[in-house]
Amino acid sequence: MRLVFAGTPETALPALDALLASGHEVAAVVTRPDAPSGRGRRMEAGPVAQRAAEAGVEALKPAKARDPEFLDRLRAIAPDCCPVVAYGALLPREALDIPRHGWVNLHFSLLPAWRGAAPVQRAILHGDDVTGAATFQIEEGLDTGPVYGVLTEPIRPTDTTGDLLGRLATAGAGLLLDTMNGIEAGVLEARPQPTEGVSHAAKLTPEDARVDWTAPARHVDRLIRACTPAPGAWTTFRDARVKLGPVRPAPDGEKLSPGELRAGKAEVLVGTATHPVVLGDVQPQGKRRMAAADWVRGVTLTGKDALH
C-alpha cells in the first residue's frame, strides 16, 4: 500500500523503520513542526522528521492538521492508509476522510483501558500487572475506534515508563506492520471496543510528578517510575527542587516519619506513610545527576532536614 506515516517522537521510530523496510511505500511522513531544543533553544526537527530526511522521504509539518495547504498536499499524495504512532495532534474529519483505508493508530494500552495521552504512565501509576498495545481505526472520538489487533506485555516490578514504552514500541512496530498487511490483503476486520473497562489516561504534568511522602511507599514507588523519564519525579529539600530516580524498599525494621531522611554509609532512606524507601539517583537543582549517598555527603544533613 501507499502510506503516509504520522508520528513525532523517538517512540515512533521502530514502527517507521519497520514500514520503511517493508513492501509498503512510505510516500511521506506527517510530524509536528520543529521546536526549540537544548540549552541554546535552537529549532530542531523531531526524531521522525530526522529519520524521514535520512530515508529521503518527504516530511509534512503542519501547525494544525486542518491547514488547507496540508490537506491539499495529502490529497495529492493520495495514500491508501495513514498509520499513526504518537503524532501528538488531533486529526479533523477532513484529514480522516482522505485515505481510503483511513488512519490506523498504534496505541500503547489494551483498549478500552487507558484511552488518552499517557497510557503507559497511567498503567504503572495504577499498579497494573499487564498492559499492551492495540491498533485501531481513528475516529473523531478520543481513542474510541474499532480495534484491528492487540498484543500484551507484563509490567515488571521495576519498570519505568521509559523501560516499558521501549518494549511496547518495538513489539508494537510488528503489530502495526501486521495490521497494514492484513488491511492490504483484505483479511483483517476492525471490531468495536467493549463498552466496559473504559479508563482515561490524562497527561501527567510536572505538578503531578511531585512526590507526596505522606502517601504509602508503593504509591511513591509507582509515581516515580511512572514519571521516569518524563515529566520527571521531584521533591524539595531546603526549599530547592530535587529530581528523583526510582526508589526501592528499605530493609525491614526501619521506621521514619514521612519525608524524614536518614543517611547510611552506602544508602539514603526517606520515610513514607507506611515504610521507608531507599533513594536511588538524585539531581539537585542546577547540578548533575548523582547517587543519593554522594548527594547527602555534600549537604551535611541535620536532624531537622526532610523532603517535602
Automatic annotation (TrEMBL):
Q: Where is the Formyl transferase C-terminal domain?
A: 203-298
Q: Which InterPro entries match?
A: Fmt, Formyl_trans_C, Formyl_transf_N, Formyl_transf_N_sf, Formyl_transferase-like_C_sf, Met-tRNA-FMT_C, Met-tRNA-FMT_N
> Is Protein biosynthesis one of the keywords?
yes
- One Pfam family cited in the UniProt record for this chain: Formyl_trans_N
Keyword annotations of the record: Protein biosynthesis, Transferase
Name the positions where (6S)-5,6,7,8-tetrahydrofolate binds: 109-112
Function in brief:
Attaches a formyl group to the free amino group of methionyl-tRNA(fMet). The formyl group appears to play a dual role in the initiator identity of N-formylmethionyl-tRNA by promoting its recognition by IF2 and preventing the misappropriation of this tRNA by the elongation apparatus.
PANTHER family in UniProt: METHIONYL-TRNA FORMYLTRANSFERASE (PTHR11138), METHIONYL-TRNA FORMYLTRANSFERASE, MITOCHONDRIAL (PTHR11138:SF5)
Official protein name in the record:
Methionyl-tRNA formyltransferase
Organism per entry: Actinomadura napierensis
Q: What is the lineage of its organism?
A: Bacteria, Bacillati, Actinomycetota, Actinomycetes, Streptosporangiales
Gene this chain is encoded by: fmt
